[in-house]
Inverse folding.
């Protein structure tokens, strides 16, 4: 069975250790929250980076990178004759349409949904309730399908609905024997990856898939190999040839500036800047909010996969292009530099606040939906109905997070990191008599300051 071969030094896969070190330094200088990264070249794992407390084998929220896997499910369904690219949505889910659907609504096809060219109104991407599909289609279209790009995650949900209808199973179950199992992406207990569902039991498609960086890597390598794995055509070649080339102009005619969101869109894959950026040759990528990536560079025979907590996706891509992919163009580093990288990889970690030894101002503080119980050895904070425990001067592990607190020059610092997603808390609490001000910062936080009073 094909497996990704690990090497001792990146140079054994044609990647410079110095280039990896340059990336590590640039990430630190930019303050970006990459959690785990795999760099693949020539079918080998050139380098694995993981910043403690994160690792590269814990499933992570993929956000819209999930879309690329939903697209693959559609590709299998077409290859098996259950759907066609021109299959109309109304012919698969007729009961979900309004009583008198418009001509545009009736003309939406699988191809239109996969290319974000369905024409559905933006409001359709904000629906909820018990029947998502019916709620989406109640909003009708504001463009003729196929003529206008508009990013719509609920459109991808409709792809999931179509595949489930014709296969009789959710796309996660459909993909398990076709993709997840052959690529070794199952859990240690043989379980399929988790994928969130709607109230009707349909995998949401456009988001909600949970995979680790280690699980993303074989998918990226299989894409690079034109869908071939272990000597066999695993991913349908017709789907891959359509999915990873421009199917629609996602700049909608505006190309006055060159960036990674107007280079074209395939079937739930983005086209990259490619040769439009100096030294940049990656051709396409799957990506998700907070910089979850599978980036494929065919010219360099290279893949980079990341799970992250970076809100500025453009900045994250720039560093990856500038340093990680460019490391394949550099001369081999000296043995001294190679050893330096290996030592650095063992110490990658995000810092925690240091406790100065002063006493915590014990008491219960409340206000604006927050209750914070400060004890001599820990803080228990109820933040909008989520309760977290912070140990003093040491990192405490919760179910899905790690956290600690510390006193520094009269201020109390609270730090928390989710292990399965991008979100962090970096809060500061300032005490004045029986009052406190709690400023919330971190990835996914809105930066507000709460005013609390002591009970």
């Amino acid at each position: 069975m094909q497996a990704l071969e690990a090497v001792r030094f990146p140079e054994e896969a044609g990647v410079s250790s110095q280039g990896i070190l340059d990336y590590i330094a640039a990430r630190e200088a930019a303050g970006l929250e990459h959690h785990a990264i795999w760099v693949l070249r020539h079918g080998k794992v050139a380098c694995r980076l993981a910043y403690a407390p994160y690792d590269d084998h814990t499933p992570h929220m993929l956000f819209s990178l999930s879309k690329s896997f939903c697209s693959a499910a559609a590709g299998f369904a077409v290859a098996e004759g259950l759907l066609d690219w021109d299959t109309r949505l109304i012919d698969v889910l007729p009961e979900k349409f309004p009583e008198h659907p418009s001509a545009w609504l009736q003309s939406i096809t699988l191809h239109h949904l996969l290319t974000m060219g369905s024409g559905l109104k933006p409001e359709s991407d904000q629906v909820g309730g018990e029947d998502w599909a019916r709620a989406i289609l109640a909003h009708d279209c504001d463009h003729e399908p196929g003529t206008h790009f508009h990013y719509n995650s609920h459109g991808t949900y409709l792809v999931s609905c179509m595949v489930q209808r014709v296969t009789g199973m959710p796309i996660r179950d459909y993909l398990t024997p076709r993709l997840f199992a052959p690529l070794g992406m199952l859990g240690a207990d043989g379980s399929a990856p988790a994928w969130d569902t709607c109230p009707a039991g349909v995998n949401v498609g456009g988001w909600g898939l949970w995979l680790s960086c280690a699980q993303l890597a074989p998918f990226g390598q299989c894409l690079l190999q034109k869908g071939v794995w272990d000597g066999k055509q695993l991913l349908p070649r017709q789907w891959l040839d359509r999915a990873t080339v421009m199917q629609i102009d996602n700049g909608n005619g505006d190309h006055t500036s060159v960036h990674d969101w107007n280079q074209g869109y395939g079937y739930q894959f983005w086209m990259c800047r490619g040769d439009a950026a100096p030294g940049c040759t990656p051709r396409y990528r799957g990506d998700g909010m907070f910089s979850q990536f599978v980036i494929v560079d065919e010219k360099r025979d290279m893949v980079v996969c990341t799970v992250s907590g970076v809100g500025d996706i453009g900045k994250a891509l720039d560093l990856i292009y500038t340093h990680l992919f460019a490391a394949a163009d550099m001369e081999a580093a000296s043995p001294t530099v190679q050893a330096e990288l290996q030592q650095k990889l063992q110490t990658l970690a995000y810092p925690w606040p240091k406790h100065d030894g002063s006493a915590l101002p014990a008491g219960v503080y409340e206000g604006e939906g927050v209750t914070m119980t400060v004890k001599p050895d820990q803080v228990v904070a109820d933040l909008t109905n989520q309760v977290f425990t912070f140990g003093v001067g040491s990192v405490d592990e919760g179910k899905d997070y790690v956290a600690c607190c510390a006193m520094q020059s009269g201020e109390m610092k609270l730090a928390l990191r989710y292990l399965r997603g991008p979100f962090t808390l970096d809060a500061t609490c300032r005490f004045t008599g029986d009052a406190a001000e709690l400023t919330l910062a971190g990835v996914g936080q809105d930066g507000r300051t709460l005013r609390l009073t002591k009970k």
